[in-house]
Amino acid sequence: MRLRKMSQDKATRESIAKQISIEFGIAYSTVYKKIDKILEIWSNEMIISDLSISNIGSFKIKKKNERIGRNPKTQKEHLIKSRKVISFKKSNKLVL
User: Fold this and answer.
1) Residue 29 belongs to domain spanning
2) Are residues 41 and 68 located together in one domain of the fold?
């Protein structure tokens, strides 16, 4: 199965659901709900542990420490709080 190339820069739930709906003749609302459920499952899995999807890549939650940042325009320094970010490492089998 090959979906048509999206005409926009970013893939959104809406655009993916629309393409799948057209490709398989399934109602858009049904496809959108399924995509939403998949993303919910992935999000919950990432809270517990790392998420690895064959032939696509792996997602990990990394902790960024607190640091001093600087506004490049005004050169004013401010504190950037510690936070968690999601990192993605693509599979060697994924061709971009």
Assistant:
1) 12-49
2) no
- Using CA atoms, how far residue 40 sits from 3, 28, 47, 85, 89, in Å, is 23, 18, 11, 17, 20
Q: Give the global pTM.
A: 0.65
Radius of gyration of the chain (CA): 18
Neighbours of 20 (CB within 10 A): 19
Number of independent structural domains in the chain: 2
Cα separation, 35 vs 44, in Å, equals: 14
pLDDT digits over 10-42, tens only?
A: 889 999 999 999 999 999 999 999 999 999 999
**Do 39 and 59 reside in the same domain of the chain?**
no
